[in-house]
Amino acid sequence: MPLSFAFHPRLVDTLRGYDKSRWLADVGAGVTVGIVALPLAMAFAIASGLKPEAGLWTAIIAGFLISALGGTNVQIGGPAGAFIVIVYGIVERYGVANLLISTACAGVLLVLLGLFRLGTLVRFVPVSIVIGFTNGIAVLIALSQVKDWLGLSIERMPGNFFSQVGLLAQHLDSFNPYAFGLGVACVAGLFLWPKLAMKESPVMRVLEQHTVRSFARVPAPVVALVTLSLLAWALQLPVETIGSRFGGIPQALPEFALPDFSWETVRLLVTPTLTIALLGAIESLLCARVADQLATDPHHKKHDPNQELVAQGLANIVVPFFGGMPATGTIARTVTNIRSGATSPVAGMVHALTLAVIVLVAAPLALHIPLAVLAGILLFVAWNMGEWHEFVRLKKFSNHYRLLMLGTFFLTVVFDLTVAVEVGLFMACALFVRRMSGLFRAVREPDPATGQPGTTQSEASQPIANSDTRPVARWRLHGALFFGAAAKIDPIVQAVETGPPGMDVVLDACELVALDTTGLDALGQVLKAVAARGGRLSVVNLHEQPRSLMERSGFADRLAAQGGASVDV
């Protein structure tokens, strides 16, 4: 495949004709998203088995690079909930140092995908598989937060589903009612807070002319984080906080450090590297498609998938050198960005700068954030992340769809995302082959003169010039004759072998839409059987693709040599 990619960030296009009104709109949206990203970035890092600053600096560095270099107008990049389970498993099995190497290597793969213009391949992943692993990841995220939500005294959670469930059950006696109360209040507040800003809500009808309405527009995670942290600090509640577990967040820029790269290490990290790259590509391009559907700004243009993959890859190459975690497009923050009025990638860059200012100025305040509150935020994220209504709608779809979705879901929960996607794609291919093979038919047609198959040829059915009366049998081919359907040609061979000697066979290919080499080999068996009985084979009304394959393979010449004909449409 020729290397025809042209590096062209969307920022270059959007800055043409950029004016003050768009600048103000982007700054407002960027500040809003930066505030929203603060609790999410910390929560994602902690849930992944990392320190909170790993998520913060990933959101800052990767978020800036993805917006500045990407192929979308309004997408926000950074740490994502979908990576929590993957990163936690890699950290537990390989360690943090190897996570950084895997992230950088995955970034290289993403850049190559973009350079070779393979961004559209992500769309080949069936939606049933995407829904299956998305719901599975949501379940695992929720399960991983039960420990902090209930305040259980567990030093470290294992990486697999059954071990997690067993360990939680063993430590239920360490239940902390204060942590649970904060967690419940957080989840309830996240569900109820957005309803306060609705015009039809009773609260807003009373407070329509008051500043409370404006206050109600403050993002719910920020309100929960601030109010519940103040409550826990004021009442001196005995709950675990960021300060008690991690000692706080450094109030300084991260240091540049080179991971210990070696070919031997990289070779051992092939599976986690592929997992990060695959999930990053799927998440970022799905998010970009969602942004295209939601955007109403007249300056918005559809995303460039290849440029976006290059930007995602470059961001993931850079962040490990600053102790960051994998980054991708984030749907929740992108939707917030759109609804806040963003018009260009400038909003995403402002979001990163806003977050950097908050971290450098207010890092000491993070000491008092209860982990139960962050767990409540992630439970809310997991709920919104899952497409639970799809389980209800399963009865409306085929068994193939149900098998793919439920199979991917359970494999994600019980094993991991890599196994789920690999098996899911294999099942998708196998089921597709089965379905396509079921669409192919070889129907024997009656003779127009008698209405019976295998009778004497008449003028109305003559496919080739023939002066003497010979027995003729006609079949019409429907669909695609490929390796999955080649066996359906066997009845034609059997009919020739048991038919009268010297019988001519006519295959009408007017409804044959595709032919592969295995299907061509099956037609070769028909030709061989017909020739052995002293007859002739004709393939008529061919479309372009089957005709081209027959000519290139020499099959058309073999037909001509035995007196048959291959006739174009």
What's the SSE blueprint?
Blueprint: H1 10-14, H2 20-47, H3 52-69, E1 77-78, H4 83-94, H5 96-115, H6 127-150, H7 161-170, H8 177-196, H9 202-206, H10 212-215, H11 220-235, H12 242-246, H13 263-268, H14 270-294, H15 305-318, E2 328-329, H16 331-339, H17 346-362, H18 371-385, H19 389-392, H20 399-414, H21 417-439, E3 441-445, E4 472-481, H22 490-498, E5 504-515, H23 517-532, E6 537-542, H24 544-553, H25 555-561, E7 566-568
Parallel strand pairs: 4-5, 5-6, 6-7
Antiparallel strand pairs: 1-2, 3-4
Helix pairs in contact: 2-3, 2-11, 2-16, 2-17, 2-18, 3-15, 3-17, 4-5, 4-14, 5-14, 5-15, 6-7, 6-18, 6-20, 8-11, 8-18, 14-15, 14-16, 20-21, 22-23
Strand order of the biggest β-sheet: 3-4-5-6-7
Total separate domains: 3
How does the major sheet shape up?
Answer: 5 strands, mixed
**Given the helix and strand composition, which structural class is it?**
alpha/beta
Cα Rg: 31 Å
Q: Taking all residues together, what is the mean pLDDT? A: 87
Extract low-pLDDT stretches.
Answer: 454-467
Percent helix: 55-70%
* Shape annotation: elongated
